[in-house]
Amino acid sequence: MEAGVGRRTGGLVMVAVPVAVLLVGAWSRRWLADDGFINLRIVEQVWAGNGPVWNATERVETGTSPLWLALLVVAGGVLRSVPLEWVAVALGMAASAVGLAAASMAARTLHAEQGARLVPVGALVVAAIPAFWDFSSSGLETGLSFLWLGTSGWALAVAAGQLRTGMRRPLATAALLGLGPLVRPDLALVALPLLIALLVAIRPLSRRELAGVVVAAGAAPVAFQVFRMAYYASLVPNTALAKEGAQSNWTAGWSYASDHVGTWRLWWPAAVLVVVAVALATGTPTRRRGARQVVTVAIVGGALVHALYVVRVGGDFMHARLLLPATFAVVLPWAVVPARRVTLAAAVALVPWALLAATTWQPTGQPGNGPADGVVDERAYYANLAGHPHPITAEDFGGVPYAVGGRRAAASATEGRGHLTFRVADPADRTGWIAAADASAPFAVAVDNVGVFGYLAGPEVSVIDVRGLGDPVASRLRLVGPRGRPGHEKRAEPAWVLARYAAPDASPPTDVVAAPAEVAAARAALACGDLGDILEGITRPLTPARARSNLGLGLTTSDLRTAADPVAARRELCGG
């Protein structure tokens, strides 16, 4: 009996050690990404009574993760005495830690009948890579992705290891799997094979039971999808439109993947994991071995499909960020494994790699002097820019130009109502103010980098994202020329901004270049065709009739793109 207790205790230690390393690493590199502040601004809009929007004047889905935003709204509301920035950082770190612990418990369950003494292998990969540390505390939804993957894997492993005695647990597991698209829409690519694995693990099912599992899995994502279309008049988040998530960009994607694999020499742990997987596959067959193999194949297969999607769309400009969930999922079935001669040797072979990854290797790309593929170490960039080793709160960003501009915009919000400016560095400079089309409208500022600026400007200021993440017009402009940095390839020129926000007779300052003919063409284009319908759908009061109309727009206008040149756009949208 004492030996059994010792084995269980040792197993838990092997689960806890990588989790502790991940937490220590995340704390040592704690920060909040500029894009993380986008989420915080949306949270403050909710608290202000404006709903989950970017600007109070229009319903645009600027956040990528509905579930992450909901957690921030609730947790931040409960902990109002704690700065929201710290709530986001702490939640991300906690989610990452619990996710890794759950992944380890999933692996332990998958291999439970092959031995009780455990050794960390896959968990060591996650714990040792600093990119995992960085995005655990970034204010983005990455930590929540790890939590969902880990708990889903654990729930599936349990389902595969037990004989079904009822439907309560399978329905709960199906509901958990259905949350994937609410963590990130692209995680639907992982959720689907996991749901299939669940159906295989608990078969045979009657038609009624099958329908129950499908309904449990689909209830939350389908309900939110209906809300998205009715509220935002869009089939997908606005960020997907801005980044052209349906288009292929294989060249940039392969560069992104090569940067991730090459920086951390992932061929090394990949080879180790193959050896471990083969060794464990030759173990003694068990009664539920087939179902467990299905779960393993589903997790790894879903991860590889997700990684392929990330490569297809061109990856991201932040080093490793979008490939971390797939990396996490690929190693999940072998996070911890039974301690055998082969697996112990594999763990030992990983130790030098882990030490090098944690202490020596690092991404090198930086904006302005980075590699041609444009992949950058975003954390290092902002730490250097802010002059702070751990930039988290808005105050930590101190003299960063966008932070200074955001504070000045907030200070000008009351006296500047009914005005528009393009002067991001100093929105309070009255010489740059342009009379707005609506004199009672909030103060508006056209910005390139919206995160820190938008959060500090506050919900009263309309922050016009000319790059498109938060703007319903810029996001729908057609890409021109060669592909560039994801999320930064589009730009609404001043004519579009003036057409939407400036009074018809307003004269912009000389530093704002926009021909009157272009402004007039943009103003006409904004009122024509599907684009005009979309703008009306997201700016007018949301009545039941408007919601029904928006549902139709969401279904029929997801592929709407128009020329970046206002004159050409007017011809396309208005005809003639």
UniProtKB/TrEMBL annotation:
Residues 439-558 form the Terminal beta-(1->2)-arabinofuranosyltransferase C-terminal domain. It comes from the Bacteria. Pfam families: AftB_C. One of its GO terms (molecular function) is transferase activity. Signal peptide: none annotated. The chain crosses the membrane at residues 12-32, 86-103, 115-133, 145-163, 175-202, 266-282, 294-311, 317-337, 344-361. Keywords: Membrane, Transferase, Transmembrane, Transmembrane helix. This is Possible arabinofuranosyltransferase AftB. It comes from uncultured Acidimicrobiales bacterium.
